[in-house]
């Protein structure tokens, strides 16, 4: 089996997401959170909330120390979770949400370090909510 090159994945992410997609994912944050909390992805809610906070701060110009492919990956994941008709439609029990989980976990592995840098930046600014989300998402305490 051929190894997947991170650079190839980054190129795909960079070319497939527009500023309008970013705006859409940001504006639909409440819907995304509601869907995650009500379903199979509930254990991943801290990660999803961190990703939402990150794209909102990026969109608002608050945080720009992140490559576009990371923002693109976040947007793709969030819109994929929200879309009921994806590789395996969400109305199919368990399998319909397993693909959402797979997409989230795969993207998370690719962008985890960028998300961690963002979380540390927010925590240094005194954001206690992000400190709690980061502790849950990464399994380590960043508040000290």
Residue-averaged pLDDT, rounded?
A: 84
Count the E strands. 0
- What form results from the Cα inertia axes? globular
Please state the CA-atom Rg, rounded to the nearest Å: 15 Å
Alpha-beta classification: mainly alpha
- Percent helix, as a range, is 55-70%
Set down the secondary structure blueprint:
Layout: H1 6-16, H2 19-27, H3 29-37, H4 45-59, H5 68-82, H6 95-124, H7 128-138
Helix pairs in contact: 1-5, 2-4, 2-5, 3-4, 3-5, 4-5, 4-6, 4-7, 5-6, 6-7
In brief:
The chain is mainly α and 144 residues long. Helix content is 69%, strand content 0%. α2 crosses α5 and α4 (45-59) packs across α6.
What would you note in describing this structure?
This protein has seven helices and no strands. By secondary structure, the protein is an all-alpha fold. The model has no long low-confidence stretch (mean pLDDT 84).
């Amino acid at each position: 089996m051929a190894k997947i090159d991170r650079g190839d994945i980054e190129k795909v992410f960079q070319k497939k997401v527009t500023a309008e997609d970013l705006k859409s994912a940001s504006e639909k944050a409440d819907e995304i959170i509601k869907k995650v909390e009500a379903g199979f992805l509930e254990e991943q809610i801290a990660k999803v909330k961190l990703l939402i906070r990150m794209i909102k701060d990026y969109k608002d110009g608050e945080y720009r120390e992140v490559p576009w492919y990371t923002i693109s990956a976040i947007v793709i994941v969030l819109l994929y979770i929200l879309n009921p008709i994806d590789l395996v439609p969400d109305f199919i029990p368990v399998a319909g949400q397993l693909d959402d989980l797979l997409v989230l976990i795969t993207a998370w592995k690719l962008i985890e370090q960028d998300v961690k840098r963002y979380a540390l930046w927010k925590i240094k600014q005194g954001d206690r909510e992000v400190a709690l989300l980061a502790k849950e998402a990464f399994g380590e305490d960043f508040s000290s």
